[in-house]
Amino acid sequence: MHFRVRWPDQSQTLCYSPSSTLRDFFELGAPYPLTEFVERSRRALQQASERVRQRYGYACSSAAHQLEQIESLAAAFAADPHAQVTVVSFHD
Questions:
Q1: Closest by alpha carbon to 41, among 70, 73, 6, 2?
Q2: How far apart are CA 88 and CA 66, in angstroms?
């Protein structure tokens, strides 16, 4: 599944998760403090990757890559204590 994220500067990124369990970690339209968003993303993508491992016998490298991208993008806003990130849509 894909999910669209709006960053503090109002730019948007289309992200990927190999599992729809990501929906359990985010409420559409709810703003999350930057550090909370990154931590939720980490847990969600690690869980999704583990589901792939259980089914196919190997972790999902796409989930790991997506987490790296999220962490990299988030770093640009780390100095702003009020930075918030919003998941604006899910796409199956």
A1: 70
A2: 17
CB atoms within 10 A of CB 65: 12
Question: Would you call 49 exposed, middle or buried from its count of C-beta atoms within 10 A (0-12, 13-18, 19+)?
Answer: buried
Distance CA 8, CA 26 (A): 17
Are 63 and 52 within 8 A, CB to CB?
yes
Q: What is the mean pLDDT of residues 74-85?
A: 97
| CB of 38 closer than 8 Å to CB of 71 | yes
Q: What's the pLDDT score for residue 53?
A: 86
Tokens of 55: 């089914």
